[in-house]
Amino acid sequence: MSGQNETPRQKMIGMMYLVYTALLALNVSTDVLKSFLVVNSAMEETITSINQQVSAAYDMMDQAYALNKAKTQEAWDKTQIVKEKSEDLLNYLDKVKTELIAVCEHIPAEEAVGLTAHDIQRQDNFDDPTHYFIGESEDGSAGEAHVLKEKLTAFRNDMHEILGEDSTKVPLSALRTDKEYAVSWEVEHFYHMIVVADLAMLNRFYSEVLNGTYNVVSQLYAGISDNDFKFDQIEARVIAKSNYVFTGQQFEAEIFVAAFDSKSELSATIGGTTYKGENGIVKYKRAATTLGEQKLNGTIAVPAAYGIKEYPFSMSYIVAEPTATVSADAMNVLYVGVDNPISALAAGIADANTRVTMTNGTLKKEKAGKYTARVTQPGVQAVISVYAVENGKEQLMGSQTYRVKRVPDPVARINGQDEGARNIDKNTLANAGGLLVSMKDFEFQLSIKIGSFSLQISKGQELTNVMRSSSNRFTDDMIQNIKRCKRGDKVFIQDIVAQMPDGNRSLGDMILTIK
């Protein structure tokens, strides 16, 4: 089932399921068979009740759509998809129940339509149901149980896709088929089960599909106007100042009602104690003295038109030992010769009481929790540690180790052309005026430039003298020689030196063919 997110109805269904599976372990006596029939009848009554709620949810969405189509179009369209997929799956479950009765009674399927568990002659029959659901396979992959599993999985996935980010708000775990089982989901649910138990199981899935449908449609409806404050359903909310606190601190939370008048005189009851609210908010504090997950459950009382209505709420938070967070803001490595931005924080400790150290480099504090790291030696790891300083004592809160690398080589360019062999028009080359330099796929903004380079031109079988520039610009001699080039002449740009933050760097040669 769905654990702490289960509705009361789901819990009741789960309890019924536990009852009849426990009974299955006993010898199948007349009394046991009657018990299964009672459980199955209760399931059918539950289905009738949930069916009414699903119909009401559809009607509620249709009314909203009739009042404001523009606003509700998307939610209404999704509801139609939900309705179609739900009805398809429910019709399939009805078909399976009919086929199961037909197989067990050895009658045509059309004669089994309308028959119930009470009409079955051999209510303790498990051979025919097992063959129907498991087939000739050991894991059930060749029987109808496998088809049912695939359809339940597809329905659950479809509902999650329709809800998108809101899927976490709707409990659908009762339809999960991917849990670990001794053999398989199919065998776990349908192997060697008597027919009345199988019918109860199918009705359980039927009710879960209906319940999921109701929850999905209700969530779609609730999402139409979250900010309008016009819905008649009110849900309690708990906002914690932090869900992660340390021993010795206090857990703080604000408990309030969404979309409710801030002037309402609210109150919340937690652990038998009532807390009064102000301005529509109940503020709650509890000392964090025990490590681990802590539960907060209670009810919030809201003045309504006719008396007081109470709404339950629950949440959890973690109490943990102090820890530290250190992260590189730009990437997961540190580079030599550049300012590497670092965030270094000790959770729950004031910045003034925090000390941060570093190996293989230095740290410069920019502001609270923000530092600039300068590393010195590539290939040697840098360790950044965070200490809490209180009452003259230091406590290591945590540390992080980073790899240290040299800045990658830049690339020299001419009019968009980079290193290697390229074709270029001589006028374009002459008008470029010189070399540019840039970094490929590097997140830092660096101040780099070309410090010098040489240029030589091959004209047929002759080579010009090597011409040198002590900047990134072409010399006059270079430009004149370039302008005298003919088609097919080659221009060699070599000995390119880039001035980097960590020193000069030699770059790759460029070979340009005049076109």
How would you summarize the topology of this molecule?
Blueprint: H1 8-24, H2 30-67, H3 69-105, H4 109-112, H5 127-134, H6 144-163, H7 185-190, H8 195-222, E1 236-240, E2 244-246, E3 250-257, E4 267-270, E5 273-276, E6 281-287, E7 292-304, E8 307-320, E9 324-328, E10 333-336, E11 340-346, E12 354-358, E13 361-367, E14 370-375, E15 382-390, E16 393-406, E17 411-414, E18 417-418, E19 420-424, H9 426-432, E20 436-438, E21 449-459, E22 462-463, E23 467-469, H10 476-483, E24 490-500, E25 503-506, E26 510-514
Parallel strand pairs: 2-8, 10-16, 19-26
Antiparallel strand pairs: 1-3, 3-6, 4-5, 4-7, 7-8, 9-11, 11-14, 12-15, 13-14, 15-16, 17-18, 17-20, 21-22, 21-23, 21-24, 24-25, 24-26
Euclidean distance between termini CA atoms: 74 Å
The helix tally amounts to 10
Number of DSSP strand runs = 26
Helix fraction, binned, reads 25-40%
Taking all Cα atoms into account, the compactness measure Rg is 37 Å
Tertiary shape: elongated
Characterize the quaternary organization of these chains: single chain
Proportion of strand residues: 25-35%
- Sequence stretches where pLDDT stays below 50 over 5 or more residues: 23-27, 226-232
The biggest sheet, with number of strands, parallel, antiparallel or mixed sense and barrel status, is: 7 strands, mixed
Number of domains: 4
Secondary structure category: alpha+beta
